[in-house]
């Protein structure tokens, strides 16, 4: 566990285990600790690398807005240092960054896992927004105390900086991604799309993402919400582990993958 420089940003990176690299990208309002008790357990099979993205967790905030595009560039820099293609998994906003990374540098991504992410801001059913009086009255109004406490526990910027970074993270949900179905169709990386059956992402959007990816696979975890990593950690970890550790198998009645299988 150490700090490293990624495109001028000082970022905290935790590493556990040995084997092929697996990079995990956390969601907004969180950090690499988000994978404790779920995907971090894959350190038995992989060298699990958990960066705290700029402005999150132990990584200090930077001047100006946060950008998913910039964080994708940070991830490209991190993957380049790992030497060779790596497995890449992202959750929520981290899935957006993971997708942008793979579109930029598919040569650096051996397999891709997108958990409850979007390829266009329209996919969110709703997004976190500050209340109308938050700035004047309480900048933390409506924010769960555990989120603020988790940030304050490790952030080098301190608890008082949370409203600043929170506003930047909220703005990320509306950032223009510039990803088209044609872009997705050109992504020649085996990709697992994971969603909750009661997610804050429209199921139609998740299906559009899956259908646009030529090597896409789909898993919907029943009885879960957008917080599926906590709702059913064992179920999510099992489906991700299966995807990451096994090659795709021919299926007996293929439909969308019929052209990819031997006759």
UniProtKB/TrEMBL annotation:
Domain AB hydrolase-1: from-to ranges: 22-238
Task: List the InterPro entries.
Answer: AB_hydrolase (IPR050471), AB_hydrolase_1 (IPR000073), AB_hydrolase_fold (IPR029058)
Q: Which residues form the signal peptide?
A: none
Pfam families the record matches: Abhydrolase_6
GO molecular function ontology, one term from the record: catalytic activity
PANTHER family, A to Z: AB HYDROLASE-1 DOMAIN-CONTAINING PROTEIN, HYDROLASE, ALPHA/BETA FOLD FAMILY PROTEIN
Q: What is this protein called?
A: Pimeloyl-ACP methyl ester carboxylesterase
Q: Which organism is it from?
A: Jiangella alba
């Amino acid at each position: 566990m150490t700090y490293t420089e990624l495109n001028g940003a000082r970022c905290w990176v935790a590493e556990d285990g040995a084997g092929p690299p697996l990079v995990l990208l956390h969601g907004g309002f969180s950090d690499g600790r988000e994978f404790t008790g779920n995907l971090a357990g894959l350190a038995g099979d992989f060298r699990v690398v958990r960066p705290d993205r700029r402005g999150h967790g132990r990584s200090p905030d930077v001047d100006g807005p946060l950008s998913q595009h910039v964080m994708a560039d940070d991830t490209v820099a991190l993957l380049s240092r790992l030497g060779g293609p790596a497995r890449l998994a992202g959750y929520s906003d981290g899935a957006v960054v993971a997708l942008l990374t793979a579109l930029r540098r598919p040569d650096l991504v051996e397999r891709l896992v997108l958990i409850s992410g979007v390829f266009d801001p329209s996919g969110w059913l709703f997004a976190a927004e500050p209340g109308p009086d938050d700035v004047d009255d309480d900048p933390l109004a409506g924010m769960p105390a555990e989120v603020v406490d988790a940030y304050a526990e490790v952030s080098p910027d301190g608890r008082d900086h949370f409203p600043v970074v929170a506003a930047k993270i909220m703005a990320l949900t509306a950032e223009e991604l510039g990803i088209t179905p044609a872009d997705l169709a050109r992504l020649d990386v085996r990709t697992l799309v994971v969603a909750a059956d009661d997610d804050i992402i429209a199921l139609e959007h998740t299906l559009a993402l899956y259908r646009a990816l030529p090597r896409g696979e789909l898993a919907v975890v029943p009885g879960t919400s957008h917080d599926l990593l906590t709702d059913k950690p064992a179920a999510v970890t099992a489906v991700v582990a299966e995807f990451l550790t096994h090659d795709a198998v021919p299926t007996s009645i293929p439909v969308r993958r019929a052209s990819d299988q031997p006759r």
